[in-house]
Automatic annotation (TrEMBL), chain A:
Gene3D superfamilies: P-loop containing nucleotide triphosphate hydrolases. It comes from the Bacteria. Keywords: Antibiotic resistance, ATP-binding, Nucleotide-binding, Transport. It is a peripheral membrane protein. One of its GO terms (biological process) is response to antibiotic. It is found in: Cell membrane. InterPro entries: AAA+_ATPase (IPR003593), ABC_transporter-like_ATP-bd (IPR003439), ABC_transporter-like_CS (IPR017871), ABC_transporter_ATP-binding (IPR050763), DrrA1/2-like_C (IPR025302), P-loop_NTPase (IPR027417). It comes from Nonomuraea glycinis. This is ABC transporter ATP-binding protein. GO terms for molecular function: ATP binding; ATP hydrolysis activity. Belongs to the ABC transporter superfamily. PANTHER family: ABC TRANSPORTER ATP-BINDING PROTEIN, ABC TRANSPORTER ATP-BINDING PROTEIN NATA.
From TrEMBL, chain B:
Residues 19-346 form the ABC-2 type transporter transmembrane domain. It comes from Nonomuraea glycinis. InterPro entries: ABC-2_transporter_component (IPR051449), ABC2_TM (IPR013525). This is ABC transporter permease. The keyword Ribosomal protein does not apply. One of its GO terms (cellular component) is plasma membrane. It is found in: Cell membrane. The chain crosses the membrane at residues 20-38, 150-174, 195-222, 234-260, 272-290, 327-346. Pfam families: ABC2_membrane_3. Keywords: Cell membrane, Membrane, Transmembrane, Transmembrane helix.
Amino acid sequence: MLEISELRKRFAGGPDSPEGKLALDGISFAVRPGEMFGFVGANGAGKTTTMRIVMGVLKADSGSVSWQGRPLTYTDRQKFGYMPEERGLYQKMRAGEQIEYFGRLHGLSQSAAKQAADDLLQRLGLTERRNSSVESLSLGNQQRVQLAVALVHEPEVLILDEPFSGLDPIAVDALATVLQERCRGGVPVIFSSHQLELVERLCDSVGIVSAGRMVASGTVEDLRAAESRTLRVVVREALPGWADGLPGEVSVTGDRHVLLTTHGDDQEILRRAVKAGRVEHFGVQQPSLTEIFKEAVA
Amino acid sequence: MNGLMLVARREISTQIRTKAFLISLAITAVLVGALAFAPKFFDGPDEYTLGTVNSQQLPLEAAAPDAKFEWRSFPDEQAATKAVLDGDVEAVLVDGTKVITDGEIDSQLGVLMQSIHRETKLGAAGVRVEPLQMESVGADTRYEAARTGIAVVLVLVLFMLIIGQVMMVAMGVVEEKGSRIVEILLSAVRPWQLLGGKIIGLGVLGLINLATILVVGLGASFASGFAADFPPGMVGIVAGVLLWFILGYAFFATLAAALSSLVSRQEEVGNVMSPLTMLIMASYFVAFYATNDPTGTVATIVSFIPPFSSMVMPVRMAATEVPMWQVGISVGLMALAVAGTLAFGAKVYERAVLRTGARVKLGEVLRAR
């Protein structure tokens, strides 16, 4: 389990703000093996800073990161896979060689690195680009190479900062499949994203950060449960006033009566609706992650 | 150690495949080769075309074995005068008593003709004059010209190679920092491995360059016959050059890596590196001065002071005989300086290389925890 607890970080201020900027204000969360953790938050909320601290690129002012119950060490991090927010590759190096090189730096043998690079290139649809220099690739393909660099050494933990940004839907699916596989293999995966539908679809749990604090975290289901649920009933051919005495609001368009309510006895409402006319829809509206997110950071 | 070697190998294999590297290597090889043949063209033996009118040829060859003399004989003084004025001959001996020339006679030739004339006359009169015995009590100056030539070429080669490779180190560090690839690299290797690997890799490329220059230069010298003028101890000079290149390069490259890790953009490299390039230039100028006066006080003192010694000492070693103890002390001091620079450079690099954005102040880096 990867545990992040009480991270605080203040960046040195310029002449305008001698106080500096408080980037992290005691952020804590944990990711279990095999769990995919979606990290969401507005720009500047502290996602990147948190990931950089986990990867040792930045030092926290206080707080700790532990892996399997021990403080995270340099040797542990060598087995992590990392995709930084600002992509970086050797522009003049060939795609395949670059992936292999990082595999070797992470301790793979020459043949294992080559094998892993070939596999990833194939998975990400880049086999024909193996010998192209990175600078000659499209941005989307460069991003796939970047991802392959993070994955090449079969990392024990994956930390990916905005891995999906700038990818076309097919690449998104290819990447999602690869991540889900790694995740099923027992690897904790943390990724940040602004594509909330994607996070909702892929992640077991979600953390919403705002101004350096974790304002909500848990499974998407838990977060939904915490939100107020709205019951929506559609009845046709009902007489006006059928819903008198029931909680909520009724709107009428032609012969369509729509009742929206957040409280009341749903079974009683159903009985009244059936009696009143033809029930076309009866269901609880699930708030989307976007709605939860907006609610949480508001 | 593994990481260090992997980084070094990447530097070598990426650079060695570039056209720029191969072309510059080929150009240097051609230039150095041509240089070894140059003395043959500019420094050929003296040649004189002389004439006689009603005279015996003077046995000038006996007195000046290195020069070549060609004699023509003319029927009368009028024909000889015409030939002299046309520039066909330089001097004509008339009747064994006078020499006609067009303007002032070449002073060496004049002295030579006078003394040989006197000697033949005296010989004919039965007087034998023993030639003076020449004996040098000073240093062996036979190879002075060759030594100076070698030293001049050497200082130029060392300077070009060191400044070239050092700039490559600086550009490489900024490339990695600016593209943020350093963040991923440092999640796999230690900063000292990344820094050391880069310095070693580019240093090996420098050595390949230097070795090519030495091999081509020596090969061409043997082919052109210039090698006959080589001073004794050429092997020592060559070994010294390699050693001093390694020391000088290690010193300057480490500082270059430290300084360039303070900036994030290629455009800023020149600026942040300027104190270092000035230091290299200064070493070069002192070393160039030393080729002229390798035994002077300035050259002798500076050949002990790092980092100047890395260019001045090899020049002194080529230009004159340097006692072994002096070389030893100078190498020792330079090695100490390199060790100090490595410690300092690694610290600065480690602290600065992840701080992207605006230029990091050196003082700030040194004060940080």
